[in-house]
Amino acid sequence: MARVVLEKVYKSFPSRKGENSPESSPNANPKASGVNVLRCINLAVEDGEFMVLVGPSGCGKSTLLRILAGLEELTAGNIYVGDRAINTLAPKERDMAMVFQNYALYPHLTVYENIAFGLRRMYQPQEKVSQTWPDRVSVWGKQLLSRSTRSLPPQLQYLSPTDQTIRDRVRTVAALLQIENLLHRLPKQLSGGQKQRVALGRAIARSPQVFLMDEPLSNLDAKLRAETRSQIVKLQRHLQTTTIYVTHDQTEAMTMGDRIAVMNQGEIQQIAHPLELYNQPANRFVAEFIGSPPMNFLSVDIKAPLLITHPQFRLTLPETWLEALRPYDGRSLLLGIRPEHLSLGPAAVKNLEVTVDLVEALGNDTYITTHLTQEPETVLQARLPPDTEVIVGETVWLSMNLEKILMFNAKTGNAIRFDPLLK
Ligand SMILES: Nc1ncnc2c1ncn2[C@@H]1O[C@H](COP(=O)(O)OP(=O)(O)OP(=O)(O)O)[C@@H](O)[C@H]1O
Ligand SMILES: [Mg+2]
């Protein structure tokens, strides 16, 4: 197990016709030419931590994982595992195991052989080094015997000491993942979830210092996904292996990660514990990406520190905002409010008059999609109790939970922080 550190990591691919590196970014690497896919990534994953990398498609998550695994070269920067810089090490020397989205199982090998495959490669070089010539000849003979009896019934198989170690390891891992009864099957005889567990088993069996998982659940249906999700978390807690898990699914990120790193366009936007990310997003991108349905935004003006004005409403924020909003007096800001912090309220100056466009009754909750009556382009979504009776086309008033309002710089998108200790 080990701490993994990425220090100012950049990656650029040669540009194709019509593609340019975004020169305007403050983190653009002057040394890099081509398309900058990763820009100044700084990330420290603690020993035994479950770190989730989340971000929209194409933001560079897989590239980052492939760089860690040694499958892709970095353009600039350093990667450390423990005290060791691993930039120049070959993938097999990095002691990391990667689980891919498409499982990547060998179709002609049984589940047992798929799990044992990596272990054989791991043990064989050690055997070679540790033996003199006459010993080696005898080992080769035994290996030949072991290989040629592998497909026979167990009682007729010859097992060398290494084979026995491998067998014990495969069985332990199979028991952990509850796939003992599948060991003799070929991948084509397995369901998606079972294949996924075999792929995990193959990674676990090697006892690597680091697990790298790239969207390992995306081929599973919703139920199996939820089941496997909790299984992976339990397993990781049990094994305590440093894990970097990539997903674009924010529910997975929120429920699995000790911490989450949110990425966008090759840059890390924020690294934080799940609830911190949810309650105190660093910027508009994180606020919108984490949470479903996403946060609502309204353009407002700030007057006399705490007064918020908008053509359709005006309200006074709690005192906690006093210092944070002082520099913005007379300026425009973005107000962010999550759907669950809106509720039906009376007609009032501080409330929002909206027209209902869509009602989605999910049984446990009712989501409504609305627009401001005087500003049809401003869409607001609200999460309401399941028994709420609202119909499409109706005009209703929405009330904001003032304690839950967030403010963002309209230009940069950065969150304006207030001091929670003042609460
Ligand atoms: N070998 C390559 N050559 C050129 N561009 C590449 C190469 N590999 C990836 N890219 C580009 O790098 C960007 C990041 O790709 P990456 O696969 O890391 O995204 P991702 O975040 O994993 O997305 P997804 O969620 O869709 O898997 C994309 O714009 C992709 O087109
Ligand atoms: Mg990817």
Strand order of the largest sheet: 6-7-8-3-9-10
Question: Which quaternary structure do these chains form?
Answer: single chain
Taking pLDDT < 50 over at least 5 consecutive residues as the criterion, the unreliable ranges are none
Distance between the termini: 41 Å
Second CATH tier, the architecture of the domain at 1-14 and 30-95 and 208-292: 3-Layer(aba) Sandwich
* Major sheet size, sense and barrel closure: 6 strands, mixed
**Percent in strands:** 25-35%
Q: What descriptive keywords fit this protein?
A:
binds adenosine-5'-triphosphate, 6-stranded mixed beta sheet, 423 residues, OB fold (Dihydrolipoamide Acetyltransferase, E2P), alpha+beta, binds magnesium ion
Short description:
The protein is α+β, with helices and mostly antiparallel strands and 423 residues long.
Molecular structure report:
This protein has 423 residues and is α+β, with helices and mostly antiparallel strands. Among the domains are: 1-14 and 30-95 and 208-292, Rossmann fold (3-Layer(aba) Sandwich), CATH 3.40.50; 294-422, OB fold (Dihydrolipoamide Acetyltransferase, E2P), CATH 2.40.50.140. Helix content is 27%, strand content 30%. The chain contains ten helices and 21 strands. It has helices at residues 61-69, 111-129, 133-148, 161-176, 192-205, 222-239, 250-256, 274-279, 284-289, 322-325; strands at residues 4-13, 35-45, 50-54, 76-81, 84-85, 96-99, 210-214, 242-247, 259-264, 267-272, 296-303, 307-310, 313-316, 332-337, 342-345, 352-361, 366-372, 375-384, 395-400, 406-409, 415-416. The strands form four sheets. The chain has a six-stranded mixed beta sheet, with helices on both faces. A six-stranded antiparallel beta sheet has the order 13-12-11-14-20-21. A hairpin with a 2-residue loop joins strand 9 and strand 10 (267-272). Helix 2 runs antiparallel to helix 4 (161-176) and helix 4 (161-176) crosses helix 5. The two termini are 41 Å apart. The model has no long low-confidence stretch (mean pLDDT 88). The structure holds adenosine-5'-triphosphate and magnesium ion. Adenosine-5'-triphosphate (ATP) binds next to strand 2 and helix 1.
